[in-house]
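Thread: Modeling a multi-component assembly for a lab meeting

Hi all, long-time lurker, first post. My supervisor asked me to bring a structural picture of a complex we are working on to next week's group meeting, and I have zero experience with this. I have the sequence lines for every component (225 residues in total). Could someone generate the structure of the whole assembly? Inputs are pasted exactly as I received them:
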Amino acid sequence: SQQGEEDPQALSIQEGENATMNCSYKTSINNLQWYRQNSGRGLVHLILIRSNEREKHSGRLRVTLDTSKKSSSLLITASRAADTASYFCATEDGGFKTIFGAGTRLFVKA
Amino acid sequence: EPEVTQTPSHQVTQMGQEVILRCVPISNHLYFYWYRQILGQKVEFLVSFYNNEISEKSEIFDDQFSVERPDGSNFTLKIRSTKLEDSAMYFCASSEMVAGLIEQYFGPGTRLTVT
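Re: Modeling a multi-component assembly
Sure thing. I ran the full set together rather than chain by chain. Output:
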Protein backbone atom coordinates (compact mmCIF):
# COMPACT_ATOMS: atom_id res chain seq x y z
CA SER A 1 0.00 0.00 0.00
CA GLN A 2 1.09 3.54 -0.58
CA GLN A 3 1.30 6.24 2.04
CA GLY A 4 0.51 9.84 1.24
CA GLU A 5 -1.45 9.92 -1.98
CA GLU A 6 -2.28 13.36 -3.30
CA ASP A 7 -5.13 14.45 -5.47
CA PRO A 8 -5.58 15.89 -7.93
CA GLN A 9 -2.50 14.71 -9.80
CA ALA A 10 -2.49 17.97 -11.72
CA LEU A 11 -4.21 21.31 -11.20
CA SER A 12 -4.31 24.33 -13.49
CA ILE A 13 -5.69 27.63 -12.22
CA GLN A 14 -5.60 31.35 -12.95
CA GLU A 15 -3.43 33.70 -10.94
CA GLY A 16 -5.39 35.01 -7.98
CA GLU A 17 -7.49 31.89 -7.56
CA ASN A 18 -7.14 29.52 -4.64
CA ALA A 19 -5.57 26.10 -5.07
CA THR A 20 -6.55 23.14 -2.93
CA MET A 21 -4.62 19.90 -2.86
CA ASN A 22 -5.54 16.84 -0.87
CA CYS A 23 -3.52 14.03 0.62
CA SER A 24 -4.65 10.71 2.02
CA TYR A 25 -2.59 8.24 3.98
CA LYS A 26 -3.08 4.77 5.37
CA THR A 27 -1.23 4.27 8.63
CA SER A 28 -1.02 6.15 11.92
CA ILE A 29 1.28 9.12 11.81
CA ASN A 30 3.12 11.44 14.14
CA ASN A 31 2.81 14.32 11.75
CA LEU A 32 2.30 15.28 8.15
CA GLN A 33 4.40 17.67 6.14
CA TRP A 34 3.95 19.48 2.86
CA TYR A 35 6.84 20.16 0.49
CA ARG A 36 7.19 22.07 -2.73
CA GLN A 37 9.45 21.13 -5.63
CA ASN A 38 10.13 23.36 -8.57
CA SER A 39 10.90 21.49 -11.76
CA GLY A 40 14.27 19.76 -11.55
CA ARG A 41 15.06 21.29 -8.17
CA GLY A 42 15.21 20.17 -4.56
CA LEU A 43 12.42 19.98 -2.03
CA VAL A 44 11.41 22.98 0.02
CA HIS A 45 9.66 22.37 3.32
CA LEU A 46 6.42 24.35 3.56
CA ILE A 47 4.65 23.35 6.73
CA LEU A 48 4.48 20.60 9.34
CA ILE A 49 1.26 19.71 11.14
CA ARG A 50 1.33 17.38 14.12
CA SER A 51 -1.18 14.61 14.61
CA ASN A 52 -2.85 16.49 17.49
CA GLU A 53 -3.34 19.64 15.39
CA ARG A 54 -6.27 20.24 13.06
CA GLU A 55 -5.27 23.36 11.19
CA LYS A 56 -2.16 25.40 10.63
CA HIS A 57 -1.43 28.60 8.74
CA SER A 58 1.71 30.02 7.22
CA GLY A 59 1.34 33.12 5.10
CA ARG A 60 -0.89 32.19 2.16
CA LEU A 61 -0.82 28.52 3.10
CA ARG A 62 -3.44 26.74 5.16
CA VAL A 63 -3.11 23.09 6.04
CA THR A 64 -5.76 20.94 7.66
CA LEU A 65 -5.42 17.47 9.09
CA ASP A 66 -8.22 15.02 9.78
CA THR A 67 -6.75 11.97 11.47
CA SER A 68 -10.12 10.20 11.59
CA LYS A 69 -10.26 10.30 7.79
CA LYS A 70 -6.49 10.01 7.41
CA SER A 71 -6.44 13.01 5.14
CA SER A 72 -4.90 16.45 4.86
CA SER A 73 -5.41 19.41 2.58
CA LEU A 74 -3.16 22.23 1.49
CA LEU A 75 -4.81 25.48 0.45
CA ILE A 76 -2.83 28.18 -1.30
CA THR A 77 -4.78 31.41 -1.37
CA ALA A 78 -4.42 34.17 -3.98
CA SER A 79 -2.11 32.04 -6.08
CA ARG A 80 0.74 33.52 -8.09
CA ALA A 81 2.55 32.31 -11.17
CA ALA A 82 5.56 31.66 -8.91
CA ASP A 83 3.52 29.04 -7.03
CA THR A 84 3.77 26.80 -10.10
CA ALA A 85 5.46 23.66 -8.79
CA SER A 86 4.80 20.14 -7.60
CA TYR A 87 3.48 19.78 -4.07
CA PHE A 88 4.05 16.67 -1.99
CA CYS A 89 2.70 15.51 1.31
CA ALA A 90 4.95 13.39 3.47
CA THR A 91 4.22 11.39 6.57
CA GLU A 92 6.34 10.18 9.42
CA ASP A 93 5.29 7.46 11.81
CA GLY A 94 7.68 8.05 14.68
CA GLY A 95 10.63 6.31 13.14
CA PHE A 96 13.41 7.61 10.99
CA LYS A 97 11.57 7.30 7.69
CA THR A 98 9.60 9.94 5.80
CA ILE A 99 7.23 8.67 3.13
CA PHE A 100 6.30 10.97 0.27
CA GLY A 101 3.20 10.91 -1.88
CA ALA A 102 3.18 11.09 -5.66
CA GLY A 103 2.50 14.82 -5.64
CA THR A 104 0.18 17.33 -7.26
CA ARG A 105 1.51 19.36 -10.17
CA LEU A 106 0.15 22.89 -9.84
CA PHE A 107 0.24 25.27 -12.79
CA VAL A 108 -0.76 28.88 -12.16
CA LYS A 109 -1.46 30.85 -15.30
CA ALA A 110 -0.57 34.52 -15.28
CA GLU B 1 20.94 30.91 5.88
CA PRO B 2 22.65 27.53 6.25
CA GLU B 3 21.89 25.00 3.56
CA VAL B 4 22.59 21.43 2.56
CA THR B 5 24.92 21.17 -0.40
CA GLN B 6 25.45 18.26 -2.75
CA THR B 7 28.13 17.44 -5.30
CA PRO B 8 28.26 16.82 -8.14
CA SER B 9 25.07 18.32 -9.52
CA HIS B 10 25.12 15.82 -12.38
CA GLN B 11 27.00 12.53 -12.60
CA VAL B 12 27.11 10.35 -15.68
CA THR B 13 28.49 6.85 -15.26
CA GLN B 14 28.55 3.55 -17.09
CA MET B 15 26.64 0.55 -15.87
CA GLY B 16 28.67 -1.47 -13.40
CA GLN B 17 30.78 1.46 -12.23
CA GLU B 18 30.91 2.68 -8.66
CA VAL B 19 29.70 6.17 -7.84
CA ILE B 20 29.94 8.27 -4.71
CA LEU B 21 27.48 11.06 -4.16
CA ARG B 22 28.52 13.67 -1.66
CA CYS B 23 26.55 15.83 0.71
CA VAL B 24 27.47 18.43 3.27
CA PRO B 25 24.63 18.63 5.80
CA ILE B 26 23.94 21.68 7.91
CA SER B 27 26.65 21.85 10.53
CA ASN B 28 24.65 21.45 13.75
CA HIS B 29 22.35 18.75 12.39
CA LEU B 30 22.55 15.26 13.77
CA TYR B 31 20.27 13.24 11.50
CA PHE B 32 21.04 12.58 7.84
CA TYR B 33 19.01 11.06 5.05
CA TRP B 34 19.21 10.02 1.42
CA TYR B 35 16.22 9.94 -0.91
CA ARG B 36 15.91 9.31 -4.60
CA GLN B 37 13.42 10.42 -7.22
CA ILE B 38 13.19 8.62 -10.52
CA LEU B 39 12.11 11.03 -13.25
CA GLY B 40 8.41 11.74 -13.00
CA GLN B 41 7.93 9.62 -9.90
CA LYS B 42 7.64 10.21 -6.19
CA VAL B 43 10.47 10.87 -3.78
CA GLU B 44 11.54 7.58 -2.19
CA PHE B 45 13.24 7.16 1.15
CA LEU B 46 16.53 5.28 1.00
CA VAL B 47 18.23 5.52 4.37
CA SER B 48 18.55 7.53 7.56
CA PHE B 49 21.73 7.87 9.58
CA TYR B 50 22.33 8.95 13.15
CA ASN B 51 25.22 8.61 15.56
CA ASN B 52 27.41 7.05 12.89
CA GLU B 53 25.08 4.24 12.06
CA ILE B 54 22.09 3.50 9.87
CA SER B 55 18.84 4.13 11.73
CA GLU B 56 16.48 2.85 9.11
CA LYS B 57 16.64 1.79 5.49
CA SER B 58 14.14 0.95 2.80
CA GLU B 59 13.96 -2.14 0.64
CA ILE B 60 15.58 -0.13 -2.13
CA PHE B 61 18.74 0.24 -0.04
CA ASP B 62 20.25 -3.15 -0.78
CA ASP B 63 23.83 -4.36 -0.55
CA GLN B 64 24.81 -2.23 -3.53
CA PHE B 65 24.30 0.89 -1.43
CA SER B 66 26.29 2.17 1.50
CA VAL B 67 26.52 5.42 3.43
CA GLU B 68 29.34 6.95 5.34
CA ARG B 69 30.19 10.03 7.31
CA PRO B 70 33.93 10.02 6.70
CA ASP B 71 34.60 13.22 8.59
CA GLY B 72 32.71 15.81 10.57
CA SER B 73 31.14 17.48 7.58
CA ASN B 74 30.53 15.08 4.68
CA PHE B 75 27.86 12.43 4.27
CA THR B 76 28.24 10.14 1.27
CA LEU B 77 26.13 7.63 -0.60
CA LYS B 78 28.02 4.96 -2.53
CA ILE B 79 26.53 2.73 -5.18
CA ARG B 80 28.96 -0.11 -5.80
CA SER B 81 27.88 -1.36 -9.19
CA THR B 82 25.41 0.95 -10.86
CA LYS B 83 22.48 -0.32 -12.86
CA LEU B 84 20.41 1.47 -15.46
CA GLU B 85 17.53 1.67 -13.01
CA ASP B 86 19.68 3.63 -10.56
CA SER B 87 19.31 6.66 -12.82
CA ALA B 88 17.49 9.22 -10.70
CA MET B 89 17.83 12.41 -8.70
CA TYR B 90 19.39 11.70 -5.33
CA PHE B 91 18.58 14.08 -2.51
CA CYS B 92 20.40 14.40 0.77
CA ALA B 93 18.64 15.88 3.78
CA SER B 94 19.51 16.68 7.35
CA SER B 95 17.67 17.66 10.50
CA GLU B 96 18.47 18.73 14.03
CA MET B 97 16.19 16.15 15.52
CA VAL B 98 14.57 12.98 14.28
CA ALA B 99 12.46 13.49 11.18
CA GLY B 100 8.91 14.26 12.02
CA LEU B 101 9.60 16.38 15.06
CA ILE B 102 11.25 19.04 13.00
CA GLU B 103 11.65 19.79 9.36
CA GLN B 104 14.27 18.21 7.19
CA TYR B 105 16.40 20.45 5.01
CA PHE B 106 16.99 19.09 1.54
CA GLY B 107 19.92 19.63 -0.74
CA PRO B 108 19.47 20.54 -4.42
CA GLY B 109 20.10 16.98 -5.52
CA THR B 110 22.52 15.07 -7.72
CA ARG B 111 21.21 13.83 -11.03
CA LEU B 112 22.71 10.40 -11.67
CA THR B 113 22.59 9.08 -15.22
CA VAL B 114 23.67 5.48 -15.76
CA THR B 115 24.36 4.56 -19.37
